[in-house]
TrEMBL record:
Domain of life: Bacteria
Record-given protein name: Probable enoyl-CoA hydratase echA8
SUPFAM superfamilies (UniProt xref): ClpP/crotonase
Originating organism: Microbacterium lacticum
Upper lineage: Bacteria, Bacillati, Actinomycetota, Actinomycetes, Micrococcales
GO molecular function: enoyl-CoA hydratase activity
Keywords, sorted A to Z: Fatty acid metabolism, Lipid metabolism, Lyase
PROSITE patterns documented for this protein: ENOYL_COA_HYDRATASE
Xref: PANTHER family: ENOYL-COA HYDRATASE, MITOCHONDRIAL (PTHR11941:SF54), ENOYL-COA HYDRATASE-RELATED (PTHR11941)
Length: 258
């Protein structure tokens, strides 16, 4: 865990923290950072002691996008066969709920990375956008898809086609961020949210995330069927019995993640 060069990793209680740490490049996502991020997240994801992950950057930048300097001279073959961003897709598929704590720039791949998370908490200093069109490309990791689902076609189209960025207030109003908090409170708030999630039953949190993801990836009819099947299956868990017994007995539930 200590060998990473572009991220910082820490476990606090049941919460795994990943901090992007390339300050010289505003946390631009180069291939090393992407593979380290995917690795750290998969280690947390495989650890039953971790009930939530927080992903954050610095006060100045969550991430200012894919690393333009690393990417500039790539060929289509290199971008597809040796896709330097494959780790971001891996990261987007972790089962553990992920809270993005975003301050400063979340642009291009940085905005897309935030959108692979489940909750986006934004500092009032955050700036979101998909400025790829200014570089002669389009978003490549969900900026035309997840952003459209989050803020609607017309808002997303304006951002993607013009490259305009939006501040945290506009992003919250548009539905991209879960909540805006004062910059000084961002990490404490992220910790509170992550701890709240991590205090629940882990398999139930996995199921909730899977069902939420289905809402972004399938038709409503399929999503509803999937949700019902998952809901029904949870009655096999000790934690369902415990949660409902605790309610009847007017006490806090003691989940064993089984
Ligand atoms: N890549 C590489 N280096 C960067 C990046 C980046 N995305 N962003 C900033 N940096 C570097 C700068 O080059 C600079 O380095 P140096 O001091 O060596 O010149 C350092 O970080 C500080 O940046 P600035 O001096 O530019 O700081 P400013 O405060 O003046 O400006 C900005 C901050 C506005 C954020 C500016 O840096 C900027 O516009 N950055 C680029 C933003 C951008 O265009 N992002 C989109 C990139 S493309 C992308 O993300 C596509 C994803 C596709 C995924 C595909 C999956 C298959």
């Amino acid at each position: 865990m200590t060998d990473y060069t572009t991220i910082l990793v820490e476990q606090r209680g049941r919460v795994g923290w990943i901090t992007l740490n390339r300050p010289e490049a505003l946390n631009a996502l180069n291939s090393t950072l992407v593979s380290e991020l995917a690795h750290a997240a998969s280690v947390f994801d495989a650890d039953e002691q971790i009930g939530a992950i927080v992903l954050t950057g610095s006060a100045r930048a969550f991430a200012a996008g894919a690393d333009i300097k690393e990417m500039a001279d790539k060929t289509p073959v290199e971008m597809s066969l040796r896709n330097p961003f494959a780790g971001l897709e891996e990261f987007s598929r972790v089962r553990t709920p992920v809270v993005a704590a975003v301050a400063g720039y979340a642009l291009g791949g940085g905005c897309e990375l935030a959108m692979t998370c489940d909750i986006i908490l934004a500092a009032d200093t955050a700036t979101f956008g998909q400025p790829e069109i200014n570089l002669g490309v389009i978003p490549g990791l969900g900026g035309t898809q997840r952003l459209t689902r989050a803020v609607g076609y017309y808002k997303a189209a304006e951002l993607v086609l013009t490259g305009r960025t939006m501040d945290a207030t506009e992003a919250e109003r548009a539905g991209l961020v879960s909540r805006v908090v004062p910059a000084g409170d961002l990490l404490a708030e992220a910790e509170r949210v992550a701890e709240a999630i991590a205090s629940k039953s882990l398999p139930v949190a996995y199921a909730a995330k899977e069902a939420l993801r289905a809402s972004q990836e399938t038709t409503a009819a399929e999503g509803l069927r999937f949700e019902r099947a998952l809901f029904t299956s949870l009655f096999a868990l000790d934690d369902q019995k415990e949660g409902m017994a605790a309610f009847r007995e007017k006490r806090a539930a003691n989940f064993t993640h089984r």
